Amino acid sequence: MTKMVDVSGKLMQRRKAVAEGRLKLKASTVKEIRAGRIKKGDVLTVSQVAGIQAAKGTSGIIPLCHQIPLSSVDVQFKLIKDTVIARTTVITNSVTGVEMEALIGTTVALLSVWDMVKYLEKDEEGQYPVATICDVKVIEKCKEEV
C-alpha cells in the first residue's frame, strides 16, 4: 500500500537542506556562458529562476512529498573549466525536511543550463557526447527549534 507519511505529530522546526550537482560540458561552452554569448540569453539567471520555481513545485513532481511552505530558496552557480556546479539551499519552518526541494532545485537548474547551451554541445550526429549531469547529492541537512 502506498501512502503519504503522517507528519502531524512532529514538531515545527527550522529546517535547511543544501544540494549540489555538476553539469559537465565542453570547456568552450563554459567559456561562452562566462562571456554571455548564449543565443537564449543569460544562462545563469534563467537557470537560477528555473531551480527556484522547481523547488517550489516539488510536491507536484515527487508524488509522496508533502507540500511545504518554503521560507527561502537560493540557487547559486560556480563555473569551472568544463563544469557548471549548481548549489541549492532551501529553508522552511515546518514539520518535515526540504531535501527533495533542494535536490529538485539543483537538478532542474542544471537541466535549464543544458537546455540553453545544447546547440553548442551537439556533435555531428546531434548527440551529446560530453554533457553529463552527475554528482547530485545532499551536502548539508540541519534542523533546529523554532
Structure report:
The chain is α+β, with helices and mostly antiparallel strands. The chain has helices spanning 27-35, 43-56, 58-61, 99-121, and strands at 13-24, 70-80, 83-94, 132-145. It is built from four helices and four strands, in the order βαααββαβ. A four-stranded antiparallel sheet has the order 2-3-1-4, covered by helices on one side. α2 (43-56) runs antiparallel to α4. It is elongated and about 55 Å long.
Give a brief rundown of this model.
This protein is of the alpha+beta class and 146 residues long. It contains four helices and four strands. 34% of the residues lie in helices and 34% in strands.
The CATH architecture is: 2-Layer Sandwich
CATH class: Alpha Beta
Low-confidence stretches: none
Q: First CA to last CA: what distance?
A: 34 Å
Strand order of the largest sheet: 2-3-1-4
| Domain module count | 1
Question: What order do the SSEs take from the amino end to the carboxyl end, as H and E?
Answer: EHHHEEHE
Remind me, CATH topology?
Alpha-Beta Plaits
Assembly type of the chains comes to: single chain
Tally of helical runs? 4
What is the radius of gyration computed over CA atoms, rounded to a whole number of angstroms? 17 Å
Count the beta strands: 4
- The assigned structural class equals alpha+beta
Share in β-strands: 25-35%
What's the name of the CATH homologous superfamily? Answer: Molybdopterin cofactor biosynthesis C (MoaC) domain
Share of helical residues? 25-40%
* Shape category: elongated
Q: What is the mean pLDDT?
A: 97
The biggest sheet, with number of strands, parallel, antiparallel or mixed sense and barrel status, is: 4 strands, antiparallel
